Amino acid sequence: MLTEGLNPNEFTLSSLITLCGSKLGLFDYGRELHCYIVRKMNLDVDSCVRLDCCLIDMYSRCSKVSLARQVFDQMRFRNVHAWTAMISGCLQNGDVEESVHLFCKMRRTSGVEPNEVTLVTLLPACSLIAGLLGVKQIHGLSVKKGFVNHTLLCNSLIDMYSKNGLLTSARKVFDHDCRSKDAISWGCMILGCGVHGEGQVAVALWDKMLANEVKPVAISVVGVLSVCSKSGLVEKGLDVYDKAINVYGLEPTVEMCSCVVDLLARSRQLNEALSFIKAMALEPGPSVWGALVSASVVNTDYETRVLGYKSLIEIEPENPSNYVSLSNLLATSRKWDYVADVPRTMKERKLRKLPGCSWITINSKTHSFVAADKAHSASHKIYEILNELILVMKRP
């Protein structure tokens, strides 16, 4: 186009910038376009804001959030789209607190009010920082602003309420606020029911979704398959997978296949699970073999567990957890010659297993713990209560 003497406008450039942000390998092209805009383009305010928003998004998706912030700080005029792009950029790059800080600054200092996309973008950040309270605050603000019936926002609220343990609120949003339900709405609600052990409710929702002629998407299929696996509904789960692929024309995903493997393996059909893995059109990933390994632990199937761990090591040679698990398994079977090979292989590959860590936040203070940790000031009392719980769990 340039060779033929035609100059791009802001729409041409915004399309190209969006492509540059989709792959890290195109980052240099994105910088060249940025330079072209600075040197060649004489833009009005609206066009300038549009392109700056695209640049912020591009730099953020390429993990160059500092460059995105430079573009944002140099903008002469910032509308809600610019603020939302910067908030999203911080959240994508793990700076949750800064995304919330920007939102507060947007409203208090700049007087710019959020739209429904801003609230959807901010919702995960508020959930991470303030948990259920943060979700409720965003929900309340959406009601105040009149966005509560927006489908995308409802979907996010259903998901966040479910993840924060309040399934009843998620169901209220689904039943009353979400007036125009799409496949994602149904999928989020099905998945939420599954996470909370409401297997029969989730399956009933799946059947109702199909009765309403809503074509399922991958998330809803994964949700109902997960529910069927945990609830022991093997035939229903296999029927769901079959219809998703052969009736609704969905491409099988690794997540779907993992759920089917888990479904079969949990019901002690390990041979069928292995046959399914071998027949998969996709390359079985860590989640597929991990599902088989987890189920074989319950079924005490030694050979299947060894096969699973070896497959995991082949797929993830840099993951030390797989080596440690295989070593422990071989040790329980007294395969001492093979046990010695595992640490040697880890040493050759310079792998080291870091101890697992868990944490809990109480009154805005975070307490972290690692295995056999006694550094905490209340560790004596913690272990006392833990011992009491162990005794209760061991009672017949």
Give the helix proportion (percent range): 55-70%
Based on secondary structure, the structural category is: mainly alpha
* H/E element sequence: HHHHHHHHHHHHHHHHHHHHEEH
Total number of helical segments?
Answer: 21
Terminal-residue CA separation: 78 Å
Strand arrangement across the biggest beta sheet = 1-2
**C-alpha Rg (nearest Å):** 26 Å
Shape: globular
Low-confidence stretches: none
Summed over residues and divided by their number, the pLDDT gives a mean of 83
Q: Main β-sheet: number of strands, strand sense, barrel status?
A: 2 strands, antiparallel
Overall number of strands: 2
Structure description:
Among the domains are: 1-113; 252-354, Tetratricopeptide repeat domain (Serine Threonine Protein Phosphatase 5, Tetratricopeptide repeat, Alpha Horseshoe); 357-396, no CATH class. Helices cover 69% and strands 3% of the residues. The chain is built from 21 helices and 2 strands. It has helices at 10-20, 27-40, 45-61, 65-73, 80-92, 96-108, 116-130, 132-145, 151-163, 167-177, 183-195, 199-211, 218-231, 234-246, 254-266, 270-279, 286-298, 302-315, 320-332, 336-348, 379-394, and strands at 357-362, 365-370. A two-stranded antiparallel ribbon has the order 1-2. Strand 1 and strand 2 (365-370) form a beta hairpin. Helix 1 runs antiparallel to helix 2. The protein is globular. It starts with 9 loop residues before the first helix and ends with a helix.
